[in-house]
Here is the input.
Amino acid sequence: MFDFNWNERLYELLETEDWWERRSEFFGLLANIEEQLTSYLQQITGDDGQDLSDEATISPEATIEGRVVVRKGATILPGALIVGPVYIGESSIVGPNCKLSCSFVASNCWTGNGSEVKRSILLDGTRLVHFGYIGYSLIGRNANFGAGSVIAVRRFDNAPVKFRFADGERTLGFKGGAIVGDNVQFGVNSSILPGRTIGPNAVIHPNVVVRRNIEAGEESVGTPSATDQHIWSVLMTAWNSEADRYWARNGVFLAVSGGLLVFMTAANTKPIYSCVVALFGFFLTFIWSRVNTIGKYYLDRWKPALKELERPWSVRPMHSIADLAQTDPVARRLKSSSKYMLYVIQGMRVLWILVLLAQIFLALASLRSSPRDFFT
Here is the structure.
């Protein structure tokens, strides 16, 4: 599924500043990472299995197993457990009681006390503060994970974890973490569900559960505050009221137009009077169209405010504007109905034109045959 030279793609990732735009390409580095990283490190260590720089500070109480490379300036504190294949870049710090396994940790990274990194790639400057967990993930430069931040890697239903990109979906199998862009900030105790992507410069507030993909620069505050909930409730009530009025007005016009058609069909009126009724129905469609357009404007004017209010929430209220059209089949039908209502108005206008022409023809025919009875 991922056909490329792993080593070359890794070098490219380390050197590319705008890697986020090509994240679907670099995502393949996480596939078979244990085998590929072992091969990559073997080119550095040869048959020795380990290459521990003399300029690195490694506590004698730390445990290092398997094929491991530790570059100069790196620090490994007491109690750390490193299970190869693992690469630790220059000036990176592995805190006390940390565990690193099958991972590539670039330069100037820091993993705090009691944290774990597994089957992941961390680019320069990543900081995982104490008691955090990163697994099956690709983390950008200078990302900062607050204390207790974790990335979940498995779904409850044991289904494959899917990552969604612009060019399609990718999967690593039943386990998959996250792809995090550069300079992302995570508050304490934040949690990321499997298969999520978080764009560069995003901010995740404390205690937030990231349930959806986060765009670049977006701020996710999680559960809305009481004030925001009240504002949202007021706006949603206004939107619902506008929606009720919108459909009520369209219903009235539809009923009046239908009633006029039934009246013309059932009543035995003179052609001249039928022409007047048809002309009235024709002009009624213009009024209907104008009222429908104004109603649609008042209906839509609340949506931007609601969307902006909901945008940073990772947990949205039920029937939110942002998700309503995608999650609620009734809302999808109403959305389609509002679009097709204009077609109904146009169709009714054409129908009235045809009726008017027919009545004019009948009126002219009546005028020729019996001029005296034309108005009586």
Notes: The longest strand covers residues 81-88. The chain has two domains: 6-220, 226-373. Residues 30 and 58 are 28 Å apart (CA to CA). Residues 226-373 form one domain.
